């Protein structure tokens, strides 16, 4: 009879341990409610702070180009005056100066030749090109920030699920240990330790919930879109990227950051040329039509005048300013070279980071498998009476930490792949191993 009772109790123990193990180390199961990354990136491009600021700056540069072009168009003017003269002047029946004099002046002027203004238009266009490239750089930066926030949300949700399973397992363990203690098979100390694990699990869940809230808020702020609840399963591909030579073989001169630096250098060169060109002669023409009741000796109420003006202005200060702008252009060319080198280094670093993250993710998965096996072994040995409950506690803590490490490694790997594509001037969601 005694043997039968112990056998029945052993079956109960195995059942409870099996349930606890299933709850504690089962693979994550997430609701696929969170929108895809593409949606958040598109929203950030429409509503994000940086994107809107970039569009406003681009519109400003477009306005500056338009203003520079319009300065070459004819300028029209009209001016009317009414004058009350103290005395009227007449010669015979001709009024030279009326008592109430009315004048209307219609003017038109046009600068036909102004080399300096032509060069300033070219400089404004180069500045606009730089602004357009910088707008694309901002888009890449926005996409990078949103991608980072997105994968942080997915990882935080996965950690919260793992924490919830750990808490549920701790509660089951506490019930199991209490049943075992009631049967005289466990010490009171084991029961206390089980309660401590429950409290610890509650703390872990609270902290994970906080991390989820913060990550979601960051994603909403950067993208302008409120994320839905839940998250997709966090699983990263461990396949390597295309060789580094293929990524570095891309035409990095077409990278927005490099194009912006090159356009800045050209704009400064044109500005220096425009400053020197301001010393060249300018040619302008003008026309004026006067309508008046003070006809004078001509006895004409309407009189026009045409003029052509050639002007030259020699200002030594302009030469000094041009020299300074040329030095600034040389510095801009150095910045262009630096931007090109930085683009190559960015791809180099991002590619090696992906390779390192693949190794870390692979090691984290192996560590998780080993930790789960250790937790299961500890429970089996505790059931057989060859291990203490403390051994079980330590093994379960290690298993949870291994799960968190695996989640972090996979999240970092997913983001590092996205970052590599952004570093090469692509998009975070570009698929495939090739650049």
How would you describe this structure in keywords?
disordered N terminus; alpha+beta; Outer membrane efflux proteins (OEP); 435 residues; four-stranded antiparallel sheet; two-stranded antiparallel sheet; single chain
Would you kindly provide a written description of the structure presented here, covering whatever features stand out?
It is a single chain. The protein is of the alpha+beta class. It has nine helices and six strands; from the N terminus they run αααββββααααββαα. The strands form two sheets. A four-stranded antiparallel β-sheet has the order 1-4-5-6, with no helix packed on it. A two-stranded antiparallel ribbon has the order 2-3. The two termini are 72 Å apart. The N terminus is likely disordered.
Provide a brief overview of the structure.
The chain is 67% helix and 12% strand. With 435 residues, the chain is of the alpha+beta class. Strands 1-4-5-6 form a 4-stranded antiparallel beta sheet, with no helix packed on it. The protein has a two-stranded antiparallel sheet with strand order 2-3.
Which architecture per CATH? Answer: Up-down Bundle
CATH topology: Outer membrane efflux proteins (OEP)
Helix content: 55-70%
Average pLDDT confidence is 86
Largest sheet: 4 strands, antiparallel
Within the largest sheet, what's the order of strands? 1-4-5-6
Can you write the helix and strand succession as a string?
HHHEEEEHHHHEEHH
The percentage of residues in β strands lies in 5-15%
Q: Give me the number of helical elements.
A: 9
Q: How widely separated are the two ends? A: 72 Å
CATH class, named Mainly Alpha
Task: State the secondary-structure class.
Answer: alpha+beta
